[in-house]
Amino acid sequence: xxxxxxxxxxxxxxxxxxxxxxxxxxxxxxxxxxxxxxxxxxxxxxxxxxxxxxxxxxxxxxxxxxxxxxxxxxxxxxxxxxxxxxxxxxxxxxxxxxxxxxxxxxxxxxxxxxxxxxxxxxxxxxxxx
Length: 129
Description:
By secondary structure, this protein is of the alpha+beta class. It is built from two helices and seven strands. Helices cover 22% and strands 33% of the residues. It has a four-stranded mixed sheet with strand order 4-5-6-7. A three-stranded antiparallel sheet has the order 1-3-2.
């Protein structure tokens, strides 16, 4: 991340849990911060789990806030940017099955309509369209 000057990485199908994130944080916690979402109940399928990884030397991670849109499938992280600006980053992974995919997009749109302050500036989504 340092060499390429990357502030944020978006990941899908992560399968992260508390133990795994703690292990990564133990090894790389001085340089990266992980925000992740997994399926409710901790029973992520093989196609769930999303994460945003922030490079601490280039990002103010102390001011991060996040909202889960669909646990294990979509979340938005708001990051302090330049001055008083906030950059809202949405990471998502839509299901393959047509009906589930349509429901995914309806849920995401509904979330943003109900919570306009969380309208993302950046979309990092595997939409399976």
